[in-house]
Amino acid sequence: MRTESAELLRDALSLPAEARAALIDSLIESLDVEVDPDAEAAWREEIHRRLQQIDGGAVKTIPWNDARSTLRDSLRR
């Protein structure tokens, strides 16, 4: 990730939750792309597959605080 992008992301992550949600909405709207009509079904299948992996013990979840710390550490590099 370029330094400018990393700085922008860091700044965005420091915003309050409501402001981050508004920013996300604005960014998604700015893409102005056509949505694949089969995307919803594909996501539903993917979610089902991932839940089966978690329930079956094939993958292990990690707490959000740990994931966030890892992400922040990677942005600092």
Short description:
By secondary structure, the protein is mostly helical. The protein is 73% helix and 0% strand. The protein is built from 4 helices and no strands.
Describe the structure.
This protein is mostly helical and 77 residues long. The protein has two domains: 1-33; 36-77, no CATH class. The protein contains four helices and no strands. The chain has helices spanning 3-13, 17-31, 39-55, 64-76. The longest helix has 17 residues, at 39-55. The chain is flat and about 40 Å long. 0% of the residues are buried. The model has no long low-confidence stretch (mean pLDDT 91).
Number of domains: 2
Helix content: over 70%
Distance between the termini: 10 Å
Mean of the pLDDT scores? 91
- Low-confidence spans: pLDDT under 50, at least 5 residues? none
Order of helices and strands: HHHH
The number of E-state strands comes to 0
Oligomer: single chain
Largest sheet: none
